[in-house]
Write a sequence for this structure.
């Protein structure tokens, strides 16, 4: 069997004096969409931060196609999307300006037609030139998710991506997640609410639970 696209082995993580997980393991294969489950405050966000290099685990390592990231450096992590609770938008800039800025920071060239397609799919065309400061929370969430389509990355780490989205936004995000996995990409996401029924989730992993899978 080929190595998982993304995995953790013998993974232990602390938050202050609290042990979040101990010698835990998790596998995310190419083409899979996996739900990372767990109660509020159990450490799922801290786990995402550890995977992306923002926190240091007490033990264990993160592996990318079998290679330990402790040796590979941060260059590999730049191949992933990590979408947090924070929308990471500059509020003085418009929706379009934010989208193009995200692409430029990732050294990706975006055509006008491709940007228009993304704006249409997220129902943001009529807000394309509107400063983010004037948007609702749901509209801001849609604007922040544009980077998933505009900037190709093999792994999506999505922390509560459906928050603040209405039914149409949730439907479109689920479609993007499905399409990403169909093309060989991988998605690890958290959600405390029911996701759209057409989202193709391969399985659920409970954070910190021995054996991982629910």
């Amino acid at each position: 069997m080929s190595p998982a696209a993304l995995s953790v082995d013998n993974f232990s993580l602390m938050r202050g004096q609290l042990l979040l997980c101990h010698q835990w393991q998790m596998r995310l294969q190419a083409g899979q969409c996996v739900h990372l489950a767990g109660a509020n405050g159990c450490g799922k966000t801290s786990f995402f931060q550890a995977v992306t290099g923002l926190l240091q685990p007490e033990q264990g390592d993160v592996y990318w196609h079998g290679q330990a990231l402790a040796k590979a450096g941060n260059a590999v992590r730049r191949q992933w999307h990590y979408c947090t609770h924070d929308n990471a938008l500059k509020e003085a800039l418009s929706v379009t300006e934010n989208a193009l800025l995200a692409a430029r920071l990732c050294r990706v060239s975006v055509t006008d037609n491709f940007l228009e397609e993304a704006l249409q799919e997220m129902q943001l065309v009529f807000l394309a030139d509107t400063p983010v400061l004037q948007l609702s929370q749901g509209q801001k969430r849609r604007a922040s998710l544009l980077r998933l389509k505009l900037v190709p990355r093999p792994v999506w780490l999505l922390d509560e991506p459906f928050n603040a989205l209405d039914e149409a936004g949730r439907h479109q995000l689920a479609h993007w997640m499905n399409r990403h996995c169909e093309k060989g990409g991988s998605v690890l996401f958290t959600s405390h609410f029911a996701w759209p029924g057409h989202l193709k989730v391969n399985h659920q992993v409970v954070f910190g639970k021995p054996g991982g899978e629910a």
The mean pLDDT is 92.
